[in-house]
Amino acid sequence: MSESAQPKLDLDACAAEPIRVPGGVQPHGALAVVDLGSGEIRQASANLAAFLKLMDRPSRLDDIDPTGELATELKAWLESDEALFLRTVQLAAGPQQVAAHRSEQGAIVEFEAPPASEGETLEALYPRLRRFMGATEEARDLRAITDAAVREVWALTGFNRVMLYSFDAEGVGTVLAEDGDGILPSYLDLRFPASDIPAQARELYRLNRLRLIPDANYAPSPIEPALSPVDGKPLDLSGAALRSVSPIHLQYMRNMGTLSSMSISILVDGALWGLISGHSAQPHLVNPQVRTACDFLGQIVSLQIASRVRAQLAADHVAAKRLETALLSRLAPVQDFQVGLVDNPDLWLDLVRAQGAAIISGGAVSVVGQTPSVQEIQLLASWLQKRGEATFATDSLASLWPPAEQFAPDASGVLAISISQLHADYILWFRPEVVRTVTWSGDPTKPASDTGILHPRKSFEAWKQQVRLRGLPWTDVEIETAADFRNAIQNFVLRRAEERAELTAELERSNKELEAFSYSISHDLRAPFRHIVGYAELLKAKEAALDDKSRHYIQTIVDAALTAGRLVDDLLAFSQLGRLPVSRARVDMRKLADETRRALEVATEGRTVRWEIGALPPAFGDASLLRQVMMNLVDNALKYSRPRDEAVVTIGGEDRGEVTAYWVRDNGVGFDMAYVGKLFGVFQRLHRIEDFEGTGIGLALSKRIIDRHHGTIEAYGKLGEGATLLFTLPKADPSDDKGY
């Protein structure tokens, strides 16, 4: 058939072609759809009468076999649990090979010519199948099995060439083994693109293990009537050996230089692993018995390959689990698993056979091995978070996310697991770009001519393509290992969180006990100190009986007792703060600042103090507690500005959106910011007690009050130039009518 005589075919419609309901059968046989209950023939191929040498088109099964033998055997099969019916039956036209299978539209019965010789019967072929089974069981590896399979199918069928190829995850086929007589060219080690066998065709290969096309130039025999009287739909020929095939595929065969073909499916765990395909340059018919033998052979090959695949998977799983156990044992004693991973880079990388890895947690990025930059990893994490997948794997990140092309040499392949439901926290593994040359059977990117006539790689000569932006693909075991490791890390984080929660609870209990102890001691010490001061004052009243040294001693006792009393009062206030409820309401901070200034004016008698009190926005909190904070901060400013001829105390505030800020600033002695962390600790002092009096509790008490208001407090200072104490308070909830 010349190219110009070929019909123009819609390439875009190829993948959507209705290959299960082609509307016709191949003419090397004939087909009938029978209601086995009544014997009525519901549909039939147009060639049924001619093929069976009948005078008229049969309407009942009895018209085909007046003896009723075929009907009896078919009814017995229908009542059995056998999936298929296969018999050689003597009809009026002579012996016929009859096959049948069930469908919702009726029993589909197919007729073909029986074997030409006794040597081609299944009984005669059985010893060969037995020998083949023994050979494959002793095969050393997968290559030995595939080589034996193509040799045996070639010997059984007589095709010019038989090859076995496997599919990858994307449907690309690679020829693993081949045998033949040299008439057709060799395709060993070449690749065929996934478009050669679209997804729906691969699914049909999975459901129907064997398909024969004796002559690519055949004219199909149509099904009559076209629609089933049962459901009004075209006849589903998915399970029929005679099913007519796509015109696109027939053109493909002619382009390949083959006029006949047969395919045997290789299934592993129910999935299509590969095909054994026989081809001849001329039409070539394989009889049903030999096809049945090839079907058995295909099942043997499937079992042997599945056994090898499962064994390799099991070995890979064991190796991966061993690495995971070793890595987790290294992480178990550490508090921070991120540090544990970085400290064990070899185990971390070997877990999924990666060349680089990274962990992103809380915005921090840690890396080992060959990886993109930290900024690129952070951008990748943001992109992954938008995808929302717990486990992500690709061998070509740039094909999914174009910015990845910039770092493809370091990370073309990425395997990532999410370790947080809220944040872009991930553990990632990277594989670098592997630039490699792939040899195809013809150029897979040019399936048609300019005229639109289908030319699926019209030239099937080896065509080499350089593959870039891809790393080595991740295996199912590696992806499963990463997912298992994700679960282990989440358990690790949960366990650490439980330990921290338990520790927090223990600390809270201890704090409550300490508060109770402090309250008890402080409360009990107040009375003795008052007594000391009282009796010392009585002694001072008898000055006539005391010399100067004695009066000095008594004054020292009074001063010490007063200081100790103030310390006890502060400790009591500090311990009580944890017990007292915080009553929140609107607080006039300007009024509170004025009250504080008036209360401390007595302490500033004889000093020059300039007060600068600005407009203070209102606060939301406990007025009595905030008064204590203001008192402590202003008192602190007055105390440390005492050496100045003019002390300047500034009180200010401003609205900062969700919070309101207030500050107290002085021009006093200041402090070194290197020690700012000590400023709010209990009994922490940055100056000598001899220079500036105080108990060292005031700022700690202020911080605790602000903390209970869920605010913040900070200090800024410079030696000799003064200090600023600033605190913020959250604003009231707008729904609270006590707010502002």
UniProtKB/TrEMBL annotation:
Protein origin, superkingdom: Bacteria
Histidine kinase domain segment(s): 520-733
Swiss-Prot/TrEMBL catalytic activity: ATP + protein L-histidine = ADP + protein N-phospho-L-histidine
Organism: Caulobacter hibisci
SUPFAM superfamilies (UniProt xref): ATPase domain of HSP90 chaperone/DNA topoisomerase II/histidine kinase, GAF domain-like, Homodimeric domain of signal transducing histidine kinase, PYP-like sensor domain (PAS domain)
Keywords in alphabetical order: Chromophore, Kinase, Photoreceptor protein, Receptor, Sensory transduction, Transferase
Sequence ranges assigned to domain Phytochrome chromophore attachment site in this UniProt record: 141-299
UniProt xrefs under PROSITE patterns: HIS_KIN, PHYTOCHROME_2
Protein name, as recorded: histidine kinase
Family: In the N-terminal section; belongs to the phytochrome family.
InterPro entries linked to this entry: BphY/WalK/GraS-like, GAF, GAF-like_dom_sf, HATPase_C_sf, HATPase_dom, His_kinase_dom, HisK_dim/P_dom, HisK_dim/P_sf
Record EC number: 2.7.13.3
Keyword Lipid biosynthesis belongs to the record: no
Uppermost EC category: transferase
